[in-house]
């Protein structure tokens, strides 16, 4: 007798199990990945630092904000509910956002802000990344208090490419203002002056004992002897690159911007705003007869005022006896480099190299489809008629630009207008590929320092390999600019001082194991060359991560067109996308 219909349709249980095994062995990412859901309630809460009490805009009443923890491959859903009067957006700094540009977060670039009483759910998947990143507000200067760590753990059953640490500790650097930073930048944009500087730097929200009225507000890192700790260092400061050092301890750098690096030792680190650095701290084998300060203080290469102060935390070895023993111990201090130690910074940044091995390759574009040369720096705008300004003189306001275009944020979101083809009057796609008027970029500045103002973007076809040289200028002042590119990691293939030489400098490019990151400093009076593959469709912001320079216009947008495959296209906007 032949098979019954049922037996021909249904395979045996053994066959089903075999089929399942093959399916899940082909798609291990999906099998292990989960969806993680968070709710970020944006609320006001009073905090007191330096004997000044301020109402801060916070996530869930926390300052700094809560940790966002996920594994590589996980889907993340963050519902942001705005309970305050200010407009809000949140950016997931360094997350690749492959085809999820609607979740990237910069106001008026990928979304309109979340208004009072409204909510928006950011929905993205963490693909091919593991390590430390950060989230922060991406509108005006609200990230001064709206920031927190993103901790991406390796996939289940995957290990670090270094010995598993005894404990992992996020350390976030920030800035404290005794007055509302929103008032600070509003006043600066009105007068054209440089903004008032912060009143303190902070470690995990605490200024430390070197500031007035702050001995009780000191971060203490308690450790045991003979252990290895992973410190997840994050610079969430608004306007300052920071040196960091722990007295009598050497740190081993193992990762930056959620990319593993060839490990190297350093007594002092430099971390720019938006950058992260994971370091291994090996504690001393026996209880030392001391406690140890950890200092963070500014690297500043320009002109004008800056917060010239130092935040201190304390590294404390846990003592089995009573706490009275601690009071007798001396506290040793580290020595930070001079404030304008540009040579130290250049040497330090050159130490970063990708692992570039079989498991963690460095996929540097070896050939280039399009080359760009961008000047980045300061400039001026004319003072409005019948007013006095406080820029370089009474008749100017400070400005900043890329290729002399000071970017004006539109009143609607660029991504939405691009997706709906309503671009007329919103932006133009004629951003200059090179400076319109070449000059001696790092020499004596030209007499005319005025910038042009506009909302211009560069359009790239999908999978274009890009080489971009960013050249610092000496207009107003030569200073370091940490440039952040949304939606991509890039490889820093070269850097140098003076004017970039297109005939000589490319021969020294590192195309084997260059550092891969999302934020890199254009040196004061120098240049960096980066390469990236435009494999992520959408509208992607690029800007200086010193917020004062962003506010002055040192920003632009890249538009990457859709690719041919369904997974290479921007999906329609989510139904809860905020409206302008």
TrEMBL record:
Q: Which keywords belong to this entry?
A: Apoplast, Copper, Glycoprotein, Lignin degradation, Metal-binding, Oxidoreductase, Repeat, Secreted, Signal
**Enzyme class, UniProt record, top EC level:** oxidoreductase
Q: Which GO terms describe its cellular component?
A: apoplast
The cofactors required by this protein are: Cu cation
Q: How is the cofactor bound?
A: Binds 4 Cu cations per monomer.
**Domain called Plastocyanin-like: residue spans:** 42-155, 168-319, 431-562
* Recorded catalytic activity of this chain's protein: 4 hydroquinone + O2 = 4 benzosemiquinone + 2 H2O
Compartments it resides in: Secreted, Extracellular space, Apoplast
Instruction: Provide any one GO MF term from the record.
Output: copper ion binding
The record's InterPro entries line, in alphabetical order, gives: Cu-oxidase-like_N, Cu-oxidase_2nd, Cu-oxidase_C, Cu-oxidase_fam, Cu_oxidase_CS, Cu_oxidase_Cu_BS, Cupredoxin, CuRO_1_LCC
Return the EC number.
1.10.3.2
- Which stretch is the leader sequence? 1-33
Gene Ontology process terms (BP): lignin catabolic process
Similarity comment text for this entry: Belongs to the multicopper oxidase family.
Quote the PANTHER family the UniProt record gives: LACCASE, MULTI-COPPER OXIDASE
| Protein's job | Lignin degradation and detoxification of lignin-derived products.
What's the protein name? Answer: Laccase
What is the organism of origin for this protein? Populus trichocarpa
Its gene name is: lac110
């Amino acid at each position: 007798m032949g098979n019954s219909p049922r037996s021909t349709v249904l395979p045996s249980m053994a066959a089903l199990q075999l089929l399942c095994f093959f399916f899940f062995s082909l798609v291990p990412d999906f099998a292990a990945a989960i969806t993680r859901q968070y709710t970020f309630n944006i609320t006001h809460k009073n905090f007191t630092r330096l004997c000044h009490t301020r109402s801060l805009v916070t996530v869930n009443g926390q300052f700094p904000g809560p940790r966002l923890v996920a594994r590589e491959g996980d889907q993340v859903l963050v519902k942001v509910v705005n309970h305050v009067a200010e407009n809000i957006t949140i950016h997931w700094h360094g997350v690749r956002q492959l085809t999820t540009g609607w979740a990237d977060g910069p106001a008026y670039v990928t979304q309109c802000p979340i208004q009072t009483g409204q909510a928006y759910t950011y929905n993205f998947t963490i693909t091919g990344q593991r390590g430390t990143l950060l989230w922060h507000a991406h509108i005006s200067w609200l990230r001064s208090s709206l920031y927190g760590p993103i901790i991406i753990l390796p996939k289940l059953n995957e290990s670090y490419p270094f010995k598993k640490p005894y404990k992992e500790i996020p350390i976030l650097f920030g800035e404290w203002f005794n007055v509302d930073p929103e008032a600070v930048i509003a006043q600066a944009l009105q007068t054209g002056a440089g903004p008032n500087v912060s009143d303190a730097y902070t470690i995990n929200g605490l200024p430390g004992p070197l500031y007035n009225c702050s001995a009780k507000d000191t971060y203490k890192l308690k450790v045991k002897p003979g252990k290895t700790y992973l410190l997840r260092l994050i610079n969430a400061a608004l306007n300052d690159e920071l040196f960091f050092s722990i007295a009598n301890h050497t740190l081993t750098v193992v990762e930056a911007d959620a990319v593993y690096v060839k490990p190297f030792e350093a007594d002092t680190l430099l971390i720019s705003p938006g950058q992260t650095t994971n370091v291994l701290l090996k504690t001393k084998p026996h209880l030392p007869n001391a406690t140890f300060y950890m200092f963070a203080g500014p690297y500043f290469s320009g002109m004008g005022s800056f917060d010239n102060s130092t935040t201190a935390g304390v590294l404390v070895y846990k003592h089995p006896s009573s706490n009275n023993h601690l009071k007798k111990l001396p506290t040793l201090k580290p020595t930070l480099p001079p404030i304008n130690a540009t040579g130290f910074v250049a040497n330090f940044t050159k130490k970063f190299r990708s692992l570039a091995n079989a498991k963690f390759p460095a996929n540097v574009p070896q050939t280039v489809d399009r080359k760009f040369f961008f000047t980045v720096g300061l400039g001026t705008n004319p003072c409005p008629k019948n007013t006095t300004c406080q820029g370089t003189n009474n008749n100017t306001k400070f400005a900043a630009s890329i290729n002399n275009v000071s970017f004006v944020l539109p009143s609607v979101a660029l991504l939405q207008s691009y997706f709906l083809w309503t671009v007329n009057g919103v932006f133009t796609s004629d951003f200059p590929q090179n400076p319109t008027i070449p000059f001696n970029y790092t020499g004596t500045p030209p007499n005319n320092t005025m910038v042009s103002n506009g909302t211009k973007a560069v359009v790239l076809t999908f999978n274009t390999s890009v080489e971009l040289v960013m050249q610092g200028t000496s207009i107003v002042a030569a200073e370091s600019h940490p440039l952040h590119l949304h939606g991509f990691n890039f490889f820093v293939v070269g850097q140098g001082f003076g004017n970039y030489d297109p005939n000589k400098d490319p021969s020294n490019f590192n195309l084997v194991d260059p550092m891969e990151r999302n934020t890199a400093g254009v040196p004061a009076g120098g240049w960096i060359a980066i390469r990236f593959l435009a494999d992520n469709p959408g509208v992607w912001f690029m800007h200086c991560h010193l917020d004062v320079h962003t506010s002055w216009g040192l920003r632009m947008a890249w538009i990457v067109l859709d690719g041919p495959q369904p997974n290479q296209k921007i999906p329609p906007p989510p139904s809860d996308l905020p409206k302008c």
